[in-house]
């Protein structure tokens, strides 16, 4: 993040700083599997993404969070990824374990959202990679496609909503804890697919 972004979005900047190492480790772990080398490899990558998005789906259905993120339901990509799996002839994975939204505080849930919403930024680059497999936003790679109003605009709206949250010091720590939990779960689900 630039210094201007750090000034305008201090909470988001701190989220990025505190999760940088685990985020980089996850990215490296994914790319080590060469997800775009073949449709088979891409299928494994899709299965991982499906498990993660299905796991967090209750967060996108939370009535408490919609108060802070009015477009929350529209941000959910589960339907898209199920269609993508079907496009390439794969069934959805049986290990669907969804997060217990009632076990999370609002701040923790927002930390989880930070991780999942942030992954959409990297999806822009991945959407270009997947074209070499003859897949695109209409077939096989819907979940990588940006929203109608643009990825950057949607991300700015999310950042502004996170910065506007009125959190106590304890809730601030819960926010960072939630983000770290999300990355840890992503690592575990990746191991489920590639074990």
UniProtKB/TrEMBL annotation:
Cite the SUPFAM superfamilies for this sequence. Heme oxygenase-like
Top-level taxonomic group: Bacteria
A Gene Ontology molecular function term for this protein is: heme oxygenase (decyclizing) activity
GO BP: heme oxidation
Enumerate the InterPro entries for this protein. Answer: Haem_Oase-like, Haem_Oase-like_multi-hlx
Q: Which CDD domains match?
A: HemeO-bac
The protein's name is: Heme oxygenase
